[in-house]
Amino acid sequence: MRGVSDPDGTVPALDDEDGVVAAYRQHGAEVYRFALRGLADPGAAQDVTQETFVKAWRSGHRFDPETASLRVWLFGIARNTMIDHLRARRARPWQSSLADAPTIEASAGSVEDHADTVLDGWLVEEGMRRLAPHHREALVQTHLLGRPYDEVAAELSIPVGTLRSRVFYAMRALRSAMDEMGVSL
Hints:
185 residues; mainly alpha; Rna Polymerase Sigma Factor, Chain: A; Arc Repressor Mutant, subunit A; 2 domains; 0% strand; disordered N terminus
């Protein structure tokens, strides 16, 4: 996905109001739906969506279309903003008493959603693409496929210690790639 532009072929510049408006037009509805599924509260979802685009505008200089698409970058910001919102909600439990009990019970079941899993998968996939092939291979074989180190090392004709080293440095590089994409682990 390196260098992928948005659906209309352009990547708006986020350093001015017109660029943020264009980004909102392209992705605002998706970000809102994502936040609504995660929070089950339309007001909170609106707040998270607005804060996502404010954060994107403030840190627009950090967006690099060669690193990730604007959509992936915005969803990473939205995910982190939702986490911050949920932490703040837990820190102020008295606010939950402002809603009536049936509303709280009805929304409690809808909070669990696969959107986070899908987004996390996209982000990890994008991060894995940035790894050197031998690092990617080491991670896939040992962590994703769960194969024993000695079996993978024998297959690759390398010592087990070298494989362990590759896995270590692959994890470090993956964390760095995720940081570059604005994703906190």
